[in-house]
Give the backbone structure.
Amino acid sequence: MKFNQTISIACVIIFMTISNFPNLYSQTLTPHYITTTAQSNGYYEYLPQSYDRTSNKKYPLLFCFGGYGENGDGSSIQLHYVLEPYGSTGWLMEKGIFPTSFMVNGQAQQFIILFPQFTGVATQQTINDVIDYAILHYQVDVTRIYLTGISLGGGLLWDYTGYSLANANRIAAMVPIAGGSYADPVKAQNIAAGNIAVWATHNDGDPQVPIDTTTIDYVNWINASMPPPSPLAKITIFHDTQHNAWDSTYNPFYGLHVYEWMLQFKRGPATLPVTEIELNVIKNTDNNVLLKWKTYSESNNRGFAVERSADGIRFDSIGFISTHSNSGAGAEYTFKDDMPLDGKNFYRLKQISFDTKFSYSSVKIIEFKNIT
């Protein structure tokens, strides 16, 4: 993605020099021609100036995902595509105008930043693979993993975190920009249940990715979830007729400071009594739905409310199953919905502990037509 821009680099540098952005130095971006997953054969790495592989200090991790034009084979010829979009994080680094640290809550904070190149539209497993690779090879604070992406890369953020609650629970905050993913109420519910801090941006006249059926619908559906996420998703809409909303979003010249915003958020340690719920829903030929789920560890668990919705936003309880195990081991459960709705049925589980804490499973969907 290459655009003719009218804002000069000189103006940006002058503004940032007189602003309160500390330590503006030329960035060191290191290419790695390494296969980290089936869909990625290379990435760029940026490490904080204080990074020491021999220490125990952990750092926040930021992934930057490019658009369709930044895809490639990870070779020395194509890997550079991920840094080229005007105004992107990689572009700012190459120009030497990206801050090396950010002041958050009175403390200087620094990212590890990785720019993976994908060979095509990355799957949710691909995103999990690159996250796992980073955790294994870098000193990552796993409570502070952040995602940002442009165009197709912004769509990957919606698709990955919306795929399952397990995915959502890995991410502290994300900034999707002109994200190329049509909004889906199931994905929105999973993002809301994960309480990811979301700041989405888009141009109102975007000629490539329509704002209303993507960014606006996602943010509205996330915030309409019951219960709503904490914090609520936020949206910034720029008045522009081009696809490139990332130069306005990332560049400190515009005063948005999305990097500092992300660094405010972290994931807390798991305190709920069920560590993981694997839910499946099965549509039977006699017009009923069988829900089957499995847990891997339970303690202090009261049970599961089975909830159903017609729109993926407003859920009602249709049954309750008491726990089968509170010994620390997992268990298997079933529930049959004999009266599903005509049309789409959205299902989720609300796990409730004896001390009234609760969490939600991923949302699953089954559709019936003309139930008699």
The CA atoms of residues 26 and 264 lie 25 Å apart. The first helix runs from residue 9 to 18. The first strand starts at residue 29 and ends at 32. The chain has a mean pLDDT of 88.
